[in-house]
Amino acid sequence: MQNTTKENRKYIGFFGRTNVGKSTLVNALTGQEVAIVSQEKGTTTDVVKKNMELFSFGAVVVVDTAGLDDDTLLGEKRVKASLHALTQMDLAVLIVSENRFDSLEESFIEKCKKYDIPCVIVYNKADICPAKEEIKEKIDIELKNHSSDSMLLLSDILSKTLKAKQGETKTPLKGIVSKGDVILLVTPIDSAAPAGRLILPQVQLIRDVLDKDCVCVVVKETDLEMVLKEKKIIPDLVITDSKVFDFVDKIVPKQIKLTSFSVVLARMKGAFEQYIKGTPYLDKLKDGDKVLMLESCTHQPTCEDIGRVKLPMWISKYTGKKLEFSAVSGLSDIETPLTDYAMIIQCGGCVATETQIRNRLLPALENNVPVSNYGLVIAYIHGIFERATEIFK
Fold first, then answer.
1. What is the CATH number of the domain that holds 242?
2. pTM over 0.85
3. Fewest CB within 10 A of the end CB: N or C in the chain?
4. CA angle 51, 158, 15 (to 5 degrees)
């Protein structure tokens, strides 16, 4: 099975009408009582997640959702939450039963196509009501029970679909380093750093450097000059925390390649080409423009917070404009339409999947709203945009 860390797990969402057996099927597949099961309509009220190992694929997150036809008191909000959850999935499983397959199911499949999410259609409860021929033509598997053999068969279909969608595995440094290269990582330790440990992007890059059979050197920005001049270490590539991009750029000789954690992660997970095109829009911002900062994780902001404090301050100083900044953390629904913003700036996305970031930005991309990334914006306003992106050309 593939070695998949939590932040890179594939998300599999189970969707369908109320009482088609979504929760029962999720419990059977995971082998645990993950979701409450009842004949009462609208039992599943919130999105429920469970980590598991999918046979022949690896680590995934299985997500149970409320019914798409939920007409209970809070039904509209539940349906909205389920459809929002769809945008974060790598694979959708549409459950149908009792030969019901009409506009609701067709509409859901169209949404999957819009978000480029593969959809496996499961006909459930076939022992009670077998599928008609016209329904069999639309489904991928018919389940008469939830036996271990049936769950293995379903797991195999899900695994094959995920593998077909996944393609070649992406990593932060894929294609830009070679075996034996010396990679120097600059990792500031400030008040925003968690006590006693490194932040996730730093850990991800250390692991990827080692996986690429390269030599990994990790230093604080305050020791960088000493390491380069006194220890005479000559790195093939320097990757820095974006917060000290300008400082590091002045110390690292121009002949040495330089980029940031945020930039390499954006290349792996984000809409990188759109980021490259959108970043120069900073020069076109006007007084009163709204700028949205998108954070994939949730954390307690500090006075040194990059997305809520430092970046807005740097952008305002660079543009000389009176801008209105907003921030949304986690993967919660964005209440304000993205078209209301003059520019959207996404974090590196270390805890999000490529699908989650892409679909989160999709409304902006469809409406030509400029998008960028923390690292690219910092590089641009400090005049090192070309240097930071040179290794990707």
1. 3.40.50.11420
2. no
3. C
4. 75
H-helix or E-strand spanning residue 218: strand 215-219
CA distances from 40 to 34, 43, 78, 82 (A): 17, 6, 16, 19
Q: Quick one: 110 and 62 in the same domain?
A: yes
Which helix (H) or strand (E) segment holds residue 185: the answer is: strand 182-186
Structure tokens that stand for 107 in this block: 């509409």
Tokens of 320: 């000389």
Helix (H, G, I), strand (E, B) or coil at 83: helix
Residues 230, 335, single domain; the answer is no
Cβ atoms within 10 A of the Cβ of 250, count? 9
Q: What is the CA radius of gyration of the chain?
A: 24
Query: In which residue are the tokens 């480029």 written?
Result: 116
Whether 133 contacts 142, CB under 8 Å: no
On whether the CB atoms of residues 143 and 149 are closer than 8 A, the answer is no
Q: End of a domain among 229, 263, 297?
A: 263
Q: What is the DSSP letter of 70?
A: -
Same domain, 233 and 322: no
153 and 72 fall within a common domain: yes
Q: Is residue 1 part of a domain?
A: no
150 φ, ψ to 5°?
Answer: -65, -40
Structure tokens at 222: 């305050």
Q: What is the pLDDT of residue 351?
A: 79
Residue 73 burial (10 A CB sphere; 0-12, 13-18, 19+): exposed
Task: Evaluate whether 23 touches 35 at the Cβ level (below 8 Å).
Answer: yes
Which of 381, 390, 352 is CA-nearest to residue 238? 390
Residue of 200, 197, 215 lying closest to 262 (CA atoms)? 200
- 186 with 309, same domain? no
User: Which one, of 121, 113, 120, lies nearest residue 96 by Cα?
Assistant: 121
Integer angstrom CA distances of residue 125 from 62, 70, 131: 20, 20, 9
Which residue numbers in the chain have pLDDT < 50?
Answer: 1-6, 35-38, 43-44, 302-303
Residues listed for the chain:
393
User: Looking at the domain assignment, is residue 72 inside a domain?
Assistant: yes
What per-residue confidence (pLDDT) applies to 32? 73
Domain that includes residue 370, residue range: 275-392
- Distances in Å between the Cα of 31 and the Cα atoms of 23, 27, 28, 127, 152 are 12, 6, 5, 21, 12
3-state secondary structure of 295: coil
What burial class does residue 376 get, using C-beta atoms within 10 Å of its C-beta: 0-12 exposed, 13-18 middle, 19+ buried?
Answer: buried
